[in-house]
Amino acid sequence: MPANAAKGRTFTESARRAQIVAAAIAVIAEHGYAATSFTRIAKQAGLSSTGMISYHFANKDDLIGEVLTEATRVAYEFIFPRMAAATGHRAKLRARLESNMELVRAHPGHVRALMEIARNAPTTPDFVDERFGLFTGHLRAGQDAGEFGPFNADAMAVAIIGAIDAMVIGLVFHPEVDAAEFGRELADTFDRATRPS
């Protein structure tokens, strides 16, 4: 939707959209992407019919796009202040990895929704490519600064993202596991893998 359309929404319309998005996140997290329907979302949101969803969103893809926007916003607002507070490329990488794990406990529904959409959406969401770009950019900048050793930044980014995703899945399905400890172990592993010889 164009920015001017968003600006033209009333407070009530914006609140209703936010309510529907929150319900969609909860449904995707609980039932999975494929089983998510307007009927289930309406029930989760306490709406009398699916017509209210159709009034605010053109179709499921439109709603999923808004879910992605909200879920990634929550993730970025959790992770990036921790990175900004760290000094140096190695410390920032550590902060990124540790906070990724802690995010699972702080916002489990948002994380699970992101996982479901990334794995099952018909087209690759933009945030998947953006995440790869962020990691490769950070790794190359750290190499230029002499904080990281010589390695293929693209390959290392793939390894880091794969490790994050695998550990996040483990944390999602095993709530008894200490996310902070997982984060420290992950950060230690890639600190050793990326540091200069």
Notes on the protein architecture:
There is one protein chain. With 197 residues, the protein is an all-alpha fold. 78% of the residues lie in helices and 0% in strands. It has helices at residues 3-7, 11-31, 38-45, 51-56, 60-85, 89-106, 108-120, 126-144, 153-173, 179-194. Helix 5 (60-85) crosses helix 6.
**Helix-strand pattern, N to C?**
HHHHHHHHHH
**Alpha carbon gyration radius:** 19 Å
Largest sheet: none
Shape: elongated
Count of DSSP E strands? 0
Distance between the termini: 50 Å
* Class per helix and strand makeup: mainly alpha
Q: What ranges have pLDDT less than 50 throughout 5 or more consecutive residues?
A: 1-5
> What is the helical fraction, as a range of percent?
over 70%
- Enumerate how many helices there are, as a single number: 10
Strand residues, percent: under 5%
How would you state the average pLDDT, rounded? 90
Question: What features would you highlight for this structure?
Answer:
disordered N terminus, 197 residues, mainly alpha
Quick rundown:
The protein has 197 residues and is mainly α. 78% of the residues lie in helices and 0% in strands.
Topology:
Elements: H1 3-7, H2 11-31, H3 38-45, H4 51-56, H5 60-85, H6 89-106, H7 108-120, H8 126-144, H9 153-173, H10 179-194
